[in-house]
Amino acid sequence: MTTERLDQPRDLRRTMRPHYDREAFGRLSERIARFLGTARFIVYMTVFVAVWVIWNVAAPGYLAFDPYPFIFLTLMLSLQASYAAPLILLAQNRQADRDRVQYEQDRERAERDQAEIEYLTREIAGLRMALSEVATRDYLRAELQRLLEELRARP
User: Which chain regions cross the lipid bilayer (predicted)?
Assistant: First the structure.
């Protein structure tokens, strides 16, 4: 009977599952999904299917490898679709995560901007109040001009 000591770290457990880099796999899936969503992919697939069908219809019997109902072609296209769908979903999930982070950063930036605007508004209001209590140059000139006119008007 082995007793585990609480003051010692546990031994690492070895697993039979393969280890893979999730980030690298995610980037690869995004690249594949991005390619699957292009006109180039549609053209490639159209050319591939057309060559497949023409080859198997026009080639002599001993060279044709997938006769008319093209069952092997259907299998190949189903296999491609069964891999494409999860890759596209994985890419969409990663994009949604990035969008969520971007949205959070935008919201925080907007909150900071709003706080700065409110601060500047209070500062401007304070300056306006302070200026209304301080005699401005134009006010002093007008007052001196008025006093000068009063002195000139006295006999």
Answer: 41-58, 70-90
